[in-house]
Model the fold of this input.
Amino acid sequence: MPLESNSNLIEIRGLKFSRGKREIFSGVDINIQRGKITAIMGPSGSGKTTLLRLIGGQLRPSSGTVIVDDANVHQLGHQQLYQLRKRMGMLFQSGALLTDLNVFDNVAFPLREHTRLPELLLRTLVLMKLESVGLRGARHLMPNELSGGMSRRVALARAIALDPMMVMYDEPFTGQDPISKGVLVKLIQTMNSALNHTSIIVSHDVDETASIADYIYVLSEGKIVEHGTPDALGKSQSQWVQQFMQGLPDGPVPFHFPAKQYIDDLMSGTEA
Amino acid sequence: MTGWLQQLGENGLNAFERTGRGHIFLFHVLRGIPEILLRPQLIIQQIYSVGVLSLIIILVSGLFVGMVLGLQGYTTLVDFGAEQSLGVMVALSLVRELGPVVAALLFAGRAGSALTAEIGLMKSTEQLSGMEMMAVDPIRRIITPRYIAGIISLPLLTAMFSAVGVIGGYLVGSGLLGVDEGAFWSQMQAKVDLQEDILNGVIKSIVFGAVVTWIAVFEGYDTTPTSEGVSMATTRTVVHSALAILGLDFILTALMFTDV
Ligand SMILES: Nc1ncnc2c1ncn2[C@@H]1O[C@H](COP(=O)(O)OP(=O)(O)OP(=O)(O)O)[C@@H](O)[C@H]1O
Ligand SMILES: [Mg+2]
Done:
């Protein structure tokens, strides 16, 4: 069995997590294979960002385990967890750039914190990362001078600055024009094959994601409702998956946050 | 009635819980000190934004407080024919009480609120969480340097406040009201004791610096990540700091200047 378990970089078993009284995950099992691109899809609010934070050890599950590279994330000490995080890159949905540093210094930040590289080498590395996201020319801009899509790309350059073993992309394509989308898709693919990265992509862009993912998990209402290769999902019999993959308005996928009956709500007076 | 009691209990528990969190937080901040001392440029940057940028308000206020002390002191002392002692009076009031207390209050309003707002905004824009995922501990990288900078800056600002205040008192007393210049300075030299007065004042300002900066960084770090949360945290920093300064001043004065 060791060979088998080793081919998974991340193994999630029986994961449960709640926010207040709302259960976000009620028993989720996921395997993420080394060197592959795995996509996590699901409607907005289904807990995809939460899942990435659980993998990164920023949130603690109420039960279940998350194993990353043979280490149980939630049983690591502070030091070990931080060592592990050096090898995980994460692209935040909001970018999360440091607003008092310019683009160059933002990308240089993890390198300066974790390495003692000479300034010249550091500059070369940062410019290479910025070049790969097409923003070498924007290195002197401050984060408040960037558009949403540009900040996301700077954040991506920063996430890969330390050449991590895996990168978690939270909505990498949102807010990108078709050209940058194409470039990003290529970039993720190249990094994955050239550097043997493991990639986890959270995205709503079904076509882009399906075109590069090796495996897809679909999340809904706290459970994995379907998983398989993109081809298999495309042929899936499940109405749910068909509706989601094709973006049809009618079907079993709930568009609404859980609420009481619409008519009752309208008739229930002034309660907020 | 029970609703009211319940609310009271809940608020009480919350307050205790927060105090506890504040202490654990302080422990984490202090634990980061050895590491940060190896990177002094981080502290120096913060001394600039915490300390140097508060300099103007401290100097101007110090000057005016000293001038008012000169005026008030003169009108009182002259009735007893003791206006020669104006220098001592001004210096002692500043060094023992007004310097540490007023400088700390100004510091809380100028630097403390800015620290809370800065850290609160970093939290609400996910910058702190982003750092965590880059394996950079935000408490050590962001909070500890600011905390040390606060503790270093306030005593220095207080010293400048008192020094400028003495000059203000001199300008009014000697320049305007005609107190003898020689008596003003020589009595001050003779009566102000290094240990008894100056050192105790310095100790006060170090304590105030530690407490005000602690409140400021904790409020920022513990803020609810919304605009309203940040604004409430900033207000709380100023209010809690002011109360803490005045309360601690009483306790410290009682310990230092009463012979029991
Ligand atoms: N800080 C929080 N406190 C309470 N509930 C939260 C918090 N953050 C998220 N939630 C809830 O957790 C659920 C999952 O949120 P999450 O951000 O993981 O969704 P998501 O799948 O990433 O959505 P999207 O695709 O819109 O980014 C949401 O229903 C949200 O209401
Ligand atoms: Mg999300």
